């Protein structure tokens, strides 16, 4: 289970960000924001290397003492960032990938909603349930 | 040497180093010995015995013994070297080569492996033979050695695997296994197979990690408890020595802690990686390791004194960094900052937490408890390692120094932080740099130097604002507020406070606190007037909408205009605002038309509500967040004729869209707000703004005409002014001044004379206020009646909102129905119009207003005189030209000439007749007289009419009248024409001549009307000259011979003249007879003309035809004839010209008019034209 999940617009403002320990929300906001540095770095490095067959999953962005931050970027440059507890060793790369895929599907569903205005903040229909 | 390995591993070139050791039995490996490095791979027996006897006596025994020992240790790798010496050989020449020592040895020992015995000849001599034997020996030695090595290594690996498989057994020890696998690693390292060596360590690493994870999952292994002992030493990684024997021994002794094991393992990995030229991987792995260790210690629930791990991590980070720096040059390091910066930042973080832990960050310095903790931490570091003891800058020294005093800590911490920020910035990780900067700012705040903190906080805030991260913005702002408060930047502090007070991410208490800060400041400073603090409004309150009253936002000079604004207070508590003011910009409108009431009414928003777009909360300056294009159609019409000049699309909010991007990022810079000092200010005092929407009403009395634009909105709380610098969209109201105007317009397209119609009086009151009792006085011509309904006096009932601004009243101005009556219309043309002027006295002006109304006559009337022999009829035709239908009644024709003997007998049966639009109605009267009728008759036709569409009218309408005159209506001549077929024929035939007989009969004696110059008198016998003419306009007849002639007609009743002519029908069928026309033939001089033969005269002279208006003469024939003769008219110059005058229509009765005669076609007429339709 991820402790924090964020969907970040192309322009780097958060479309959706939610963390499970709500008391420490601020820390995760900072963490996700800082991780955008690495996302940018990876995306620009990737742009040069693999244009056609692009891997959306960016892998581990950076580890911290307590958390691991993973990144994923859609073709429209919307970024997904997921923070996972370092002690949670059950989550391997594959699990993270599948979580991102699920997240991507959910995001696509949101975009398909005709009442959703692209660029607006995303409201979760399940207020306190993290991915 | 090429090394071929089992399991399909690729052959490699290796370098195998070997030591030569004197054989001792105790050196031989015992069962279970794992030391691979000191393993005796190959045993050699050297002998230089060349004497068979000696061999048999001693050497053979010795060899046997050696072999037995080897066998006992199951070692099969041996070699016997026999050194042959020529010098010695010479002494024993009798020895046969066959039975040489070598052969004997081979026989005795190498029964199957003859290659296990090598001969080395004269090793000290320099001959080719010697060389050869040496080479052979060395090759053999290498091959055998490698063979043995491979065999033994394979065995070792197998053993190791076996050992690893036993790891689930209870007595299994990781340390033991560690040593075994490390042995393998050492061997690979020795072989310079660093990759393989690294693999061994990585395997160990992974195995250990897995055990820790399993332990966390509850699957503990006994041996792991060794590693769970409390951490007592945290002296960091040691990477300077290739092998840290101290740690290795502790592992061997199974005394190592988790940190020791990890440190040792990493130091080995680091060494190998550096051998492999991969320093950046070291940095990366180091960071992973450090994080991992911290996690593992947590997972294993190892007790660690507070700060110990921080020390360990800090030292390790620096150690790794220094190690990397030691093996790379500057340029390499600079280009690989991305790999190392994580370590820097981690070290900074750890040093910071150490600083906080040891009380080095607080203002007062560490207290005794802090000091105790520091001492404990330093104790855990132990003594400095000997290898770094002499270095000026070792991690150990750094940490020790940093923890020693507040100043030293500050220095080290700042160094590290700045270095980290610089590195992050240089590789473009701005966000990370800002984040470190924020930590630094926090540190500065603790150190009470807010001025240094501010720049970092501002930088970070700007970054968060630009990317729209609400929570970080709030948090950073909170820090910034504190900083600004310490700095005494009141204005900035208040602004930040206002932003925070309106920030929904803060708790209610925090918001109230910041709001209270503002209010406190405002109340404190209220005494010292003159100093204002101007803050942007949007954080304090937001303008939501504005509502004008009157809703078209147009007011007359002197009128009252009010507007109500809805302000959403963002403050958490009610705020008492001393004054809310709207700055108004006044401009005199150039276009005078714009000031008129109609224009203003038409062009304003109808409901008078202006909505303001909600201010976008901290949203980034992205393409998406830009406001939508506001496009409008634009039509520009020429002022003169209202024709379209230009059209296009304009964008109303260009200034928003084309704004530079950078400027938008500095959204909350307070410097941009300038207070406008306007003359026109609308104020509202003492308002309490409750949280949420508040409605505030402003009132103003309009003074000067022009356009007023609302520019700024200020709310003042003491000396604090919240200013909305621009009100957008533009809000304007107009004040205009206009003279009262009166317009009178018909309700229909045009006014018709004779019937009641409504006209609308439009009073545009303008600046005039209508009072009760004001009236309009109308003075009109008599011909036009004003009909008033009983309930409607000519009094202006003004609208109830009489003093309202002028824009309203023009439509509401009381329309007064008046009925106009128009009579007496004589001339008969297409919708004759007459103008009537009405003079109106208005109460607001001393002058009368003269208004001209145009009425059209709905009818056109014509009359005609009809004859039947001597009986006369008058026909009147009334044509309705208007669009309305009328009912005609009471038609009447009277003689106005007072001739009593004349009677007009109407032949009209219906008294009521309907006349539709564009239709005609005819009326006929018969004229009867008893005495001789007068030469002329004056008649007046009158008919009553009323519009059919309207309901019965209360007023009686005047009839329509038409006056006309009929002259010479008495019949004088009767003309009768007859056509007879040629004699003998029954019918006329086409192409054959027929005779036309014209009979002209005078019907009366001389009458008064008949007296004119054509009359010639001779012996009381009057005669008159008449010209007849036969004309066939329809070309049915061809007149043969003369078609006209002059006759002298005696003026007496029943005088008759008969004329014969030949005519030829041109067509068959019933043909109308040709016309016979009579003219008066007037001689110019009666004396002269009487002499002339009329026929010849006409033929020879030019004829002047006095043509009258309705001359029925075929003018073309006369003209052509005249023109033919005019060429020869020169000799007749001066001759008097006779004139022709048409007889009035009433005087001639054509008895044969309308008669037809049957003409049958001639028999030789072959061509028959038939047209069938």
TrEMBL record, chain A:
The keyword Mitochondrion does not apply. SUPFAM superfamilies: SNARE-like. Keywords: Cytoplasm, Endoplasmic reticulum, ER-Golgi transport, Golgi apparatus, Transport. GO terms for biological process: endoplasmic reticulum to Golgi vesicle-mediated transport. It is found in: Cytoplasm, Perinuclear region; Endoplasmic reticulum; Golgi apparatus. InterPro entries: Longin-like_dom_sf, Sedlin, TRAPPC2L. It holds the Pfam family Sedlin_N. Its main location: cytoplasm. GO terms for cellular component: endoplasmic reticulum; Golgi apparatus; perinuclear region of cytoplasm. Belongs to the TRAPP small subunits family. Sedlin subfamily. This is Trafficking protein particle complex subunit 2-like protein. It comes from Carlito syrichta (Philippine tarsier).
UniProtKB/TrEMBL annotation, chain B:
It holds the Pfam family Ig_TRAPPC10. The keyword Transport applies. Residues 745-791 form the TRAPPC10 Ig-like domain. Its main location: Golgi. InterPro entries: Ig_TRAPPC10 (IPR056917), TRAPPC10/Trs130 (IPR045126), TRAPPC10/Trs130_C (IPR022233), TRAPPC10/Trs130_N (IPR056913). It is found in: Golgi apparatus. Residues 1-283 form the TRAPPC10/Trs130 N-terminal domain. Residues 1115-1129 have a biased composition (Low complexity). GO terms for cellular component: cytosol; TRAPPII protein complex. Keywords: Golgi apparatus, Transport. GO terms for biological process: early endosome to Golgi transport; intra-Golgi vesicle-mediated transport. Residues 935-1160 form the TRAPPC10/Trs130 C-terminal domain. Residues 803-827, 1108-1137 are annotated as: Disordered. This is Trafficking protein particle complex subunit 10. The gene is TRAPPC10.
């Amino acid at each position: 289970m991820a402790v924090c999940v964020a969907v970040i617009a192309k322009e780097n403002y958060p479309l959706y960000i939610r963390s499970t320990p709500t008391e420490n929300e601020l820390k995760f906001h900072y963490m996700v924001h800082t991780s955008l540095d690495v996302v940018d770095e990876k995306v620009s490095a990737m742009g040069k290397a693999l244009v056609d067959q692009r891997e959306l999953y960016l892998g581990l962005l950076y580890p911290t003492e307590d958390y691991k931050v993973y990144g994923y970027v859609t073709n429209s440059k919307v970024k997904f960032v997921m923070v996972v507890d370092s002690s949670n060793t059950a989550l391997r790369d594959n699990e993270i990938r599948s979580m991102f895929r699920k997240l991507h599907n959910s995001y696509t569903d949101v975009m398909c909603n005709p009442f959703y205005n692209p660029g607006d903040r995303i409201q979760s229909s399940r207020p306190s349930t993290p991915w | 040497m090429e090394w071929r390995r089992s399991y399909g591993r690729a052959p490699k070139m290796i370098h195998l180093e070997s030591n030569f050791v004197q054989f001792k039995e105790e050196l031989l490996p015992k069962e279970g010995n794992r030391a691979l490095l000191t393993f005796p791979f190959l045993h050699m027996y050297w002998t230089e015995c060349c004497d068979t006897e000696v061999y048999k006596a001693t050497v053979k025994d010795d060899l046997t013994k050696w072999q037995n020992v080897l066998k006992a240790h199951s070692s099969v790798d041996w070699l016997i070297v026999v050194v042959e010496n020529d010098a010695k050989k010479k002494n024993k020449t009798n020895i046969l080569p066959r039975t040489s020592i070598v052969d004997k040895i081979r026989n005795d020992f190498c029964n199957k492996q003859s290659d296990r015995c090598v001969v080395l000849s004269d090793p000290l001599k320099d001959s080719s033979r010697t060389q050869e034997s040496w080479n052979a020996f060395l090759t053999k030695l290498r091959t055998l050695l490698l063979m043995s090595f491979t065999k033994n290594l394979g065995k070792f690996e197998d053993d190791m695997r076996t050992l690893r498989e036993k790891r689930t057994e209870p007595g299994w020890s990781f340390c033991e296994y560690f040593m075994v696998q490390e042995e393998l690693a050492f061997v690979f390292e020795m072989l310079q197979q660093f990759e393989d060596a690294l693999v061994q360590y990585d395997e160990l690493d992974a195995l250990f990690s897995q055990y820790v994870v399993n332990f966390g999952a509850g699957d503990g292994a006994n041996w792991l408890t060794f590693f769970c002992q409390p951490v007592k030493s945290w002296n960091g990684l040691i990477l300077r020595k290739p092998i840290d024997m101290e740690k290795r021994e502790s592992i061997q002794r199974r005394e190592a802690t988790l940190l020791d094991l990890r440190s040792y393992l990493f130091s080995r990995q680091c060494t190998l990686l550096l051998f492999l030229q991969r320093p950046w991987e070291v940095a990366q792995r180091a960071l992973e390791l450090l994080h991992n260790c911290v996690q593992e210690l947590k997972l294993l629930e190892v007790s660690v004194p507070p700060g110990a791990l921080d020390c360990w991590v800090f030292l390790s980070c620096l150690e790794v960094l220094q190690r990397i720096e030691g093996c790379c040059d500057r340029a390499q390091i600079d280009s690989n900052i991305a790999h190392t910066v994580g370590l820097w930042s981690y070290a900074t973080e750890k040093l910071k937490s150490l600083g906080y832990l040891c009380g080095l960050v607080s203002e007062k310095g560490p207290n005794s408890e802090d000091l105790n903790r520091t001492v404990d931490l330093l104790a855990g570091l132990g003594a400095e390692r000997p290898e770094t003891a002499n270095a000026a800058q070792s991690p150990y020294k750094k940490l020790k120094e940093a923890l020693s005093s507040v100043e030293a800590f500050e220095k080290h911490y700042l160094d590290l932080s700045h270095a980290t920020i610089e590195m992050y910035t240089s590789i473009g990780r701005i966000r990370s740099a800002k984040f470190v900067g924020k930590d630094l700012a926090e540190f500065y705040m603790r150190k009470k130097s807010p001025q240094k903190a501010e720049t970092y906080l501002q930088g970070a805030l700007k970054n968060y604002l630009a990317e729209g991260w609400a929570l970080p913005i709030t948090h950073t702002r909170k820090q910034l507020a504190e900083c600004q408060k310490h700095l005494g930047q009141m204005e900035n502090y208040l602004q930040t406070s206002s932003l925070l007070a309106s920030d929904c991410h803060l708790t209610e208490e925090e918001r109230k606190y910041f709001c209270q800060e503002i209010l406190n400041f405002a109340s404190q400073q209220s005494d010292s007037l003159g100093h204002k603090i101007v803050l942007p409004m949007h954080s304090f309150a937001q303008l939501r909408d504005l509502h004008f009253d009157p809703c078209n936002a147009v007011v007359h000079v002197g009128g009252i205009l009010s507007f109500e604004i809805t302000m959403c207070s963002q403050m958490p508590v009610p705020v008492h605002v001393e004054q809310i003011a709207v700055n108004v910009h006044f401009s005199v409108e150039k276009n005078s038309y714009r000031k008129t009431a109609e224009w203003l009414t038409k062009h304003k928003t109808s409901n008078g509500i202006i909505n303001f777009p909600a201010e976008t909360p901290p949203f980034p300056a992205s393409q998406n967040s830009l406001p939508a294009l506001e496009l409008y159609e634009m039509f520009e019409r020429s002022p003169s004729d209202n024709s379209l000049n230009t059209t296009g699309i304009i964008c109303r909010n260009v200034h928003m869209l084309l704004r530079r991007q950078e400027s938008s990022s500095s959204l909350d810079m307070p410097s941009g707000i300038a207070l406008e000092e306007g003359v026109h200010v609308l104020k509202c005092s003492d308002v309490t703004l409750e949280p949420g929407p508040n409605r505030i009403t402003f009132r103003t009395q309009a003074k000067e005409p022009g356009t007023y634009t609302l520019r700024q909105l200020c709310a003042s709380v003491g000396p604090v002014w919240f200013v909305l610098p621009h009100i957008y969209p533009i809000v304007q109201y107009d004040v205009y001044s206009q003279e009262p105007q009166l317009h009178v317009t018909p309700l229909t397209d045009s006014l018709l004379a004779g019937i009641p119609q409504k006209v609308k009086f439009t009073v545009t009151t303008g600046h005039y206020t209508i009072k009760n009792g004001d009236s309009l006085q109308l003075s009109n011509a008599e011909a036009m009646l004003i009909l008033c309904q009983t309930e409607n006096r000519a009094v202006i009932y003004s609208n109830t909102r009489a003093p309202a601004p002028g824009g309203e009243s023009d439509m509401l101005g009381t329309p007064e129905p008046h009925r106009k009556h128009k009579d007496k219309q004589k001339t008969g043309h297409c919708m004759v119009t007459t103008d009537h002027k009405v003079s109106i006295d208005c109460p607001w002006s001393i002058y009368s207003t003269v208004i001209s109304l145009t009425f059209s006559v709905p009818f056109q009337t014509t009359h005609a005189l009809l004859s039947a022999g001597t009986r006369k009829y008058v026909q009147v035709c009334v044509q309705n030209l208007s669009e309305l239908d009328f009912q005609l009644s009471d038609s009447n024709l009277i003689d106005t000439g007072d001739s009593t003997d004349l009677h007009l007998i109407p032949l009209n049966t219906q008294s009521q007749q309907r006349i539709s639009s564009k239709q005609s109605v005819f009326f006929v009267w018969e004229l009867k007289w008893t005495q001789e009728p007068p030469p002329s008759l004056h008649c007046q036709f009158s008919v009553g009419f009323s519009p059919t569409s309207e309901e019965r009218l209360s007023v009686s309408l005047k009839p329509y009248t038409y006056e006309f005159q009929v002259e010479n209506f008495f019949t004088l001549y009767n003309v009768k024409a007859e056509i007879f077929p040629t004699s003998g024929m029954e019918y006329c035939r086409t192409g054959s001549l027929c005779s036309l007989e014209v009979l002209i009969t005078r019907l009366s004696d001389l009458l008064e009307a008949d007296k004119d110059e054509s009359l010639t008198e001779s012996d009381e016998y009057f005669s008159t000259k008449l010209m007849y003419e036969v004309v066939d306009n329809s070309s049915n007849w061809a007149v043969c011979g003369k078609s006209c002639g002059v006759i002298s007609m005696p003026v007496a009743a029943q005088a008759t003249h008969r004329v014969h002519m030949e005519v030829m029908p041109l067509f068959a069928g019933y043909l109308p007879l040709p016309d016979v026309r009579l003219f008066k033939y007037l001689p110019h001089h009666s004396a002269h003309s009487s002499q002339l033969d009329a026929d010849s005269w006409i033929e020879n002279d030019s004829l002047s035809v006095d043509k009258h208006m309705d001359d029925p003469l075929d003018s073309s024939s006369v003209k052509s004839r005249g023109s033919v003769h005019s060429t020869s008219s020169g000799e007749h110059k001066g001759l008097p010209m006779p004139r022709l005058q048409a007889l009035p229509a009433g005087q001639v009765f054509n008895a044969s008019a309308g008669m037809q005669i049957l003409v049958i076609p001639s028999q030789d007429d072959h061509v028959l034209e038939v047209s069938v339709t």
